[in-house]
What we know:
The complex is a heterodimer of chains A (590) and B (170).
Chain A: H1 4-7, E1 9-10, H2 11-21, E2 26-29, H3 36-43, E3 49-52, H4 56-70, E4 74-78, H5 82-96, E5 101-107, H6 123-127, E6 133-136, H7 143-155, E7 161-167, H8 168-172, E8 174-175, H9 197-209, E9 213-217, H10 219-223, H11 226-239, E10 243-245, E11 260-263, H12 270-278, E12 281-285, H13 291-294, E13 305-310, E14 324-327, H14 330-344, H15 350-364, H16 380-391, E15 396-400, H17 404-412, E16 421-422, H18 433-443, E17 448-454, H19 465-470, E18 476-481, H20 486-495, H21 511-517, E19 521-525, H22 531-540, E20 545-550, H23 574-577, H24 584-588
Parallel strand pairs in A: 2-3, 2-4, 4-5, 5-7, 6-7, 9-10, 9-12, 10-11, 12-13, 13-14, 15-16, 15-17, 17-18, 18-20, 19-20
Antiparallel strand pairs in A: 1-8
Chain B: E1 8-17, H1 22-32, E2 39-46, E3 51-60, H2 62-74, E4 78-83, H3 84-87, E5 90-101, H4 104-116, E6 120-125, E7 128-135, H5 137-147, E8 152-157, E9 161-164
Antiparallel strand pairs in B: 1-3, 1-4, 2-3, 5-7, 5-8, 5-9, 6-7
Amino acid sequence: xxxxxxxxxxxxxxxxxxxxxxxxxxxxxxxxxxxxxxxxxxxxxxxxxxxxxxxxxxxxxxxxxxxxxxxxxxxxxxxxxxxxxxxxxxxxxxxxxxxxxxxxxxxxxxxxxxxxxxxxxxxxxxxxxxxxxxxxxxxxxxxxxxxxxxxxxxxxxxxxxxxxxxxxxxxxxxxxxxxxxxxxxxxxxxxxxxxxxxxxxxxxxxxxxxxxxxxxxxxxxxxxxxxxxxxxxxxxxxxxxxxxxxxxxxxxxxxxxxxxxxxxxxxxxxxxxxxxxxxxxxxxxxxxxxxxxxxxxxxxxxxxxxxxxxxxxxxxxxxxxxxxxxxxxxxxxxxxxxxxxxxxxxxxxxxxxxxxxxxxxxxxxxxxxxxxxxxxxxxxxxxxxxxxxxxxxxxxxxxxxxxxxxxxxxxxxxxxxxxxxxxxxxxxxxxxxxxxxxxxxxxxxxxxxxxxxxxxxxxxxxxxxxxxxxxxxxxxxxxxxxxxxxxxxxxxxxxxxxxxxxxxxxxxxxxxxxxxxxxxxxxxxxxxxxxxxxxxxxxxxxxxxxxxxxxxxxxxxxxxxxxxxxxxxxxxxxxxxxxxxxxxxxxxxx
Amino acid sequence: xxxxxxxxxxxxxxxxxxxxxxxxxxxxxxxxxxxxxxxxxxxxxxxxxxxxxxxxxxxxxxxxxxxxxxxxxxxxxxxxxxxxxxxxxxxxxxxxxxxxxxxxxxxxxxxxxxxxxxxxxxxxxxxxxxxxxxxxxxxxxxxxxxxxxxxxxxxxxxxxxxxxxxxxxx
Lengths: 590, 170
């Protein structure tokens, strides 16, 4: 008989085995002293693929892109101290957008914790407010169980990032491997997924009797899985009601459908926001009444009965008081509603509905996204419309950075399916798009993955071009270059008398040469009539490409609900702005 | 003011896993989201299941308190959250140690008052007492105030622990 010592495995090996037991295929990471045992274990196996990023923040965003485009849990591996602190922005981003991640952080050996050791940081302390949950593993015996529990916590209920802090001695200590007990039975964490049937019936009654209804749905539908998006589409078609999506919810309902009003909120469409303002029944599924959506709370949809279905009880009645709060998974709730609708065949007030649609059509008629493309300068909206024209029949995924280009992308690219749109919604993290695109491309090697970027945002994680080059990831970076931090400039124009303090993109690199230096291809476009050719060329090139599109520097993103204003108080274009002042109350808001 | 805007005290009992960092999680939630903590007590209450009971007194409008409860329930190591103030009659107790220094009439008066408050003398020197007083926070506060003119040196208070009346748990 073998001595236990011989047959036992190290903590690092147990960790890798636990990841494989969780069907993890890829880990995004960056090595360092405290995680060397894990990297050694990774070296000795060939089931788990490791993608070496160039900055730990990018590892987290890449894992987010992977998670959002696949529905799986994204996995990150970073070292102690700076490795962990660099990951904090990504973790916060994932928390805000409810993205399931497991982030493994190295830690100094247990006996040195608290000694200000080299590359020591209080990782569980620092990440407590920016994770769904975190663990410090002090005993190798509980390491595999902790990993399985972390995956369970990350993916169930409202998903989110989970950190496991791993002291180096724990990684080197030995223990027997045991196959995990699945499913994980957690002591206390039992998210409610099945909605209360009585409440679903009440919701059904409200929906069936509505005269001016609107569906307002968000990322919760996407997080529930692709089936939920199908169910949503089915229910919306059954009812014949209008629907609007949040930034996070784009793709959960086909954008080309005539019942779709476009995105709502600060830069949402006129018709979507006015439908929200004037509706009599609001059906919120998997959205959270974010401040970008509601505008001025006191004047938010003043005449409506509000139904709110959310998997997170703390999202209910947080900022907007609703008439019917329902805790549960979006997909399960939709399934129940469809069942009821089919069984009871309610008689919707068709006359009222027709009048409501007629009202909506007049708002639609304002054509709030209109712009004028001249012969000289490329309008950013035009660039995106042309981009969409060339990619719409291809298997494509879009990521973005943060700012004007992001809002234009949300307005002008059409999302027909879920899990195709990766953008930093809650945290608004510049530098998100490129690493996220890498994660998406890893998950979908054959697909066309495009990062719609601004010239300022792209500089925040530009080092990841090196990762793209190393793994030959053919991501396309489509820069709308207006030589400004466009959204900052827009706000300075609107709120600060046009004093463009520090928002000018000075000393920009030559993006074509930059691409070349990283082993990618750089393209540039100034003229509107050459745009199509450049986009076609970008798509045709097999490797990573940067396209530097020089766009109108002065263009602003409209429509816009100025901060502190209500949905029925939108700015539709530059001519609107001149006549109105933003309130002092609004100035304080971000 | 409508009842929806009225700010009032709520006593919340939270049953949690007794694990490192749990108190930081709870306190961090309150500070991070700008909720008040008027009083907080925590101790292991179930050694077998390794559970601790945290009692928090907080203030807020009904909507805020509802939100606090939901946020607490969302923490992974939290088993149960009960808003005792909302759920029905409950009792609250606090314990204080009160040190008083003095001689002569003041010393005698301190002892007489302690007797009225059913405070116990748990340490004495010829010129000092340490009283142990138990009761509602109001009673403890009144006792401390009375002692302030009689040579009060130090006060230590536990904060509130609370429980529902009757036989049901919590």
